[in-house]
Amino acid sequence: MQPFVLDDRLARDSESILKLGLCDLRLARDSRWPWLILVPQRPDVSEIFDLTPLDQALLTFEQVTVGTALKKMTGADKINIAAIGNIVRQLHVHVVARSENDPNWPGPIWGFGQSVPYEEKAFEAMKHRILEAFQ
Amino acid sequence: MQPFVLDDRLARDSESILKLGLCDLRLARDSRWPWLILVPQRPDVSEIFDLTPLDQALLTFEQVTVGTALKKMTGADKINIAAIGNIVRQLHVHVVARSENDPNWPGPIWGFGQSVPYEEKAFEAMKHRILEAFQ
After folding, report:
1. What range(s) does the HIT domain occupy (chains A, B) (predicted)?
2. What is the CATH number of domain B8-133?
3. ipTM given for this complex
4. Which of A 31-70 lie inside 8 A of B, CB atoms?
């Protein structure tokens, strides 16, 4: 079996902050929203239904864990969870904290405007706040 | 416990085509994309993590069942699965068949343009093709 290799664009646009049982949990390099990405570490998977039933259940558990932590940390009005993948076909699930005064609210974040990179300290601070919210 | 009552906007913008174990499966009244919506029939639920763990597993199973059927029926390039809910807060999951020549590809469908209603015969035909794909 081929090993799992992270897609180049996911590698460029996000940074790994935690390895879960199934997924690599990544923080998007875009400061406009608290934006996490779950990437199941399985080769050749594009759709949720390409995963085995056990991996589907694990992905659900990890989405719920991450969504709950992000809600707790941010107090967001709504958590958006989406597997889109029209551009990057490697299966990845967005988990995004949305608030009523954020860019493009209540529209979706995907395809909207240009990313605004974090300053390094702000990225590290966001990362640590998220990891603390898991505890 | 309060009974489940479907949100008014979901009722207006989509039509029930099948009741699954957890969800009301609805077809959006927008002919631009084959667009299904799963609504868990539980009161006062806004986020996936508001569901019980058993209901979360059921929702995953139903998403996979519906996504697989939609892929089989349409031959779509990508199935988009998303729980957004910034406008309608009642938990609902979009399952949409996307193709490389469809409106706003590869951008998201949410918040894009105006809906294009089906003619009645075309709606019934789409509904029957979807239901057949479950078999």
Report:
1. 36-105
2. 3.30.428.10
3. 0.97
4. 46-49, 56-57, 59-61, 63-64, 67-68
